[in-house]
Amino acid sequence: xxxxQCEDSLEGVCTAIYRAYEDHAEHRxxxxxxxxxxxxxxxxxxxxxxxxxxxxxxxxxxRRFGQKDYESLGLALTTPVPEKxxxxxxxxxxxxxxxxxxxxxxxxxxxxxxxxxxQLAKKAGREYGQLREFLRFRELDRGILYAENAPKCHVLPYxxxxxxxxxxxxxxxxxxxxxxxxxxxPAGGEWYLTDSEQLLLALRQAGYSAREMAYxxxxxxxxxxxxxxxxxxxxxxxxxxxxxxxxxxxxxxKNP
Length: 256
What we know:
This protein is an alpha/beta fold. Helices cover 49% and strands 12% of the residues. The strands form two sheets. The chain has a five-stranded mixed β-sheet with strand order 4-5-6-7-8, covered by helices on one side. Strands 2-1-3 form a three-stranded parallel β-sheet.
């Protein structure tokens, strides 16, 4: 059994897929892992991320499976599940062999790996959709829009693409608290990810603008006034907006 160990990223997994095909590996007895867990009787092959090789694989995936399925494969890899790389790898192997029409790769759920990839992509896609709805930006005293949250899946790159399209002329930053990662978008420029402790500290220590504080107070007052106490349904509220998102939203904040 051959085991390719790679970086936990789309580029890392795509590099490992390239290596597996380059080595003419027997796919049924080949694994791709992004964790350090040992597998008995495995021949371990470390794989360093190669952006050129990864891009070749990504172009092939987009061409053969279509943009929608390509994005689903990427979303599956954002989940914190150790087996995700193997699921995506075997799904790619299946797709290249079976040749489904673009956009229909994940319809073939009789294959266990295709089904697993579909379920992982659905989980990450749900969280990505929730963040697009629940993320709350606050204006810092420097005029920068700042938001933070703690998603289970590493969907920050997808969230950045969405808001860069929505706010192309705004300076904004989004912090993934669990991963201590920051997405930064300079007005009119390209967004990027950074783990700069200095930048994270500067944003955490920055104060909010007077306009922001005034609007937050108005928004909380508005939410309070339109609420009908007799019709409060906390269970449904938590179902519509999970508690893990509520503590990062203005309308649920107890203090200004």
